Predict the 3D structure of the following.
Amino acid sequence: MQQQNMNMQNQQGVMQQPPAVISTKDSMYLTDMLSWNLLAVKKAHFYAQQCQCQELKAEFERCGQMHQRHYDQILTHLNPQNQSFTGVQ
């Protein structure tokens, strides 16, 4: 049983380099990830603007910034030749 689990772990290893071609399913998932993060940025900004409590407002702003970083990071990975122009590392 242990041997079988170890074989499964080896088969599901981390890819060292991305594939040369992205499948349609992968492309759709990446589009969804961008959409989810952008929506989260917009919602967090909206909620921060509506908040009276400064602690909650700050937390919503941090949440929005986190999702903005994720959005930018995904774009950077999708378009590596523009990495020097975006300022994102």
